[in-house]
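in:
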């Protein structure tokens, strides 16, 4: 019997979500993205088909009716354009016989990769004479709150209003419940963050966390040839990532009592092996740590143990979210690259990398490394990534947190200034910095001598001396700085 394996891959999701710095628009966008490959597809195009994979950004559906498959190919992109202008979609279909499902999946993936290089043309362009949105630069279609808005923003506002209506609690709590847990009894409408100010407290630092699973491709390729197993694995993985997020939130809430007011975390994406969240700065590393740990434990229960790596971009609340996300994604990639060199028992270890954006200019990470983290040739202030479990030649997340915590109190304040001065002197010369360190060790409190030695002791890594001092100061500042 001939069957038709349909696949769709969605691109531009993060650009669509983080197009502006309005948190309510981000909320609306994340709700639209959640619907793209779920309700928008299943309600209209699943007739005569069997869903194999159903996640934000990825659809695989098996059809026995050629006409139903053709209808999906013809009209699903139109549905995407109507409901989420700015998102593009790649599609492919493979025709196969009953006993060739595995080969069909491989061929479908190959065709989807090829189609990604032929993106849909943008339908949001307009004449120069057309009035445009001040926030996105796209052609305006409406005026809302005395501001010109484009079609994409209009739909995000609509979704956000559906999200924030008191009477529509199911819509309001959909993504929050996935991330925080169905059984969080204290969770109420008043707890959900809808403005960026809800994510800040004693300072303006917020964090964008992006986490991504390791080794998923190998598992999918090994089980993807079996239709039933692939479908079950996809469902189990969704459950595991949701459970990991919920357990991480429970742990964080126990430590920080987050339900007493607005919850300073806002989920953006939670699907497959992907997690993106915006949160208050001091919560980022604890949350990422617990998420990675519980993700490992929950996937172990599936029988397909996976790990995850994360990237954290610390930004001021006024910094463009889109560039903050790009940095978080880049840092996640850096963590993955380092972790893949340290495979243990067939698993890529879990770790995270982070950076605090100091400049008001948008720069890529290579420029940041050159300007801010390379004081001298052969010397670097890039010390991470930091690992979930002990790893030879690398620090754990707990070690970093422990060292940063030592700077609290009056004795720590003077030492912080001395450490910053040392980094400035290192830019002038290595010998001067070494002399400054020796002098510093004679004046710092005895309780902080060990910290100073550790922070300024360069470790040889790939031909460079790397120092943890900047990361220690960054984390301490994020956690304790008071500007409000």
């Amino acid at each position: 019997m001939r069957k038709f394996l349909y696949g769709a891959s969605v691109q531009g999701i993060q650009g669509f979500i983080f197009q502006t710095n309005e948190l309510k628009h981000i909320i609306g966008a994340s709700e639209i993205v959640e619907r793209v490959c779920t309700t928008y597809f299943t309600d209209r195009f699943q007739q005569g088909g069997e869903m194999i994979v159903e996640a934000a950004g990825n659809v695989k559906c098996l059809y026995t009716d050629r006409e139903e498959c053709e209808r999906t190919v013809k009209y699903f992109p139109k549905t995407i354009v109507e409901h989420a202008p700015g998102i593009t979609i790649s599609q492919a279909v493979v025709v196969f016989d009953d006993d060739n499902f595995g080969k069909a999946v491989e061929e479908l993936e190959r065709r989807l990769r090829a189609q990604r290089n032929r993106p849909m043309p943008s339908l949001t362009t307009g004449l120069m004479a057309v009035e445009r949105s001040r926030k996105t630069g796209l052609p305006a279609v409406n005026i809302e709150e005395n501001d010109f808005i484009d079609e994409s923003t209009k739909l995000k506002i609509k979704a956000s209003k559906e999200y924030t209506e008191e009477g529509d609690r199911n819509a309001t709590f959909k993504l929050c419940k996935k991330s925080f847990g169905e059984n969080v009894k204290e969770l109420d409408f008043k707890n959900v963050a809808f403005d960026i100010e809800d994510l800040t407290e004693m300072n303006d630092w917020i964090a964008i966390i992006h986490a991504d699973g390791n080794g998923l491709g190998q598992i999918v390729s090994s089980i993807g040839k079996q239709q039933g197993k692939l479908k079950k694995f996809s469902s189990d993985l969704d459950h595991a990532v949701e459970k990991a997020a919920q357990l991480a939130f429970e742990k964080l809430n126990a430590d920080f009592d987050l339900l007493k007011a607005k919850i300073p975390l806002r989920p953006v994406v939670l699907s497959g092996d992907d997690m993106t969240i915006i949160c208050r700065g001091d919560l980022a590393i604890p949350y990422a740590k617990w998420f990675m740990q519980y993700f490992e434990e929950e996937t172990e229960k599936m029988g397909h143990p996976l790990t995850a790596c994360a990237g954290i971009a610390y930004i001021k609340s006024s910094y463009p979210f889109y560039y903050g996300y790009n940095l978080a994604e880049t840092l996640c990639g850096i963590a993955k690259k380092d972790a893949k060199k340290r495979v243990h028992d067939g698993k890529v270890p879990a770790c995270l990398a982070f950076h605090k954006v100091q400049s008001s200019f948008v720069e890529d990470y290579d420029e940041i490394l050159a300007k801010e983290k390379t004081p001298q040739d052969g010397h670097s202030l890039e010390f991470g990534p930091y690992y979930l479990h002990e790893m030879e030649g690398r620090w754990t997340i707990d070690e970093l947190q422990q060292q940063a915590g030592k700077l609290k109190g009056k004795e720590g304040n003077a030492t912080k200034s001395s450490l910053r001065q040392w980094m400035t002197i290192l830019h002038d010369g290595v010998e001067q910095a070494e002399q400054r360190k020796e002098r510093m060790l004679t004046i710092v409190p005895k309780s902080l001598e060990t910290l100073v030695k550790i922070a300024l002791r360069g470790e040889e890594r790939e031909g460079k001396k790397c120092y943890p001092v900047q990361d220690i100061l960054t984390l301490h500042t994020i956690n304790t700085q008071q500007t409000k």
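note: The CA atoms of residues 253 and 443 lie 40 Å apart.
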